[in-house]
Description:
The protein is mainly β. It has no helices and eleven strands.
Amino acid sequence: QVLLVESGGGLVQLGGSLRLSCAASGFTFSTDVMRWYRQAPGKERELVAGINGNGDFTTYADSVKGRFTISRDNAKNTVYLQMNKLKPDGRDVYYCYAPRFATWGQGTQVTVSS
Length: 114
């Protein structure tokens, strides 16, 4: 069974940082592309960042380039999203996604206060 469990969300001040984690199980993690998405209340889920299996290729939404960094530790079956210079984007829920299995995590909420 493919399982993704996010953690690391919370309340952070404007301009602050958070690191999200997504622990994966049930598949050969090191060969799979992984992605982070986010969803604001009342809006569609949007792609934030993606990373290939060995971590040497990453992609980002224009809105987060230069502020967010996606990375992975294949020994720990975990993908990370380091978020810096957070903007007052409200209360977004961040989701981890494994495209090959079309599987989402449960999400972790990030609230940026001004």
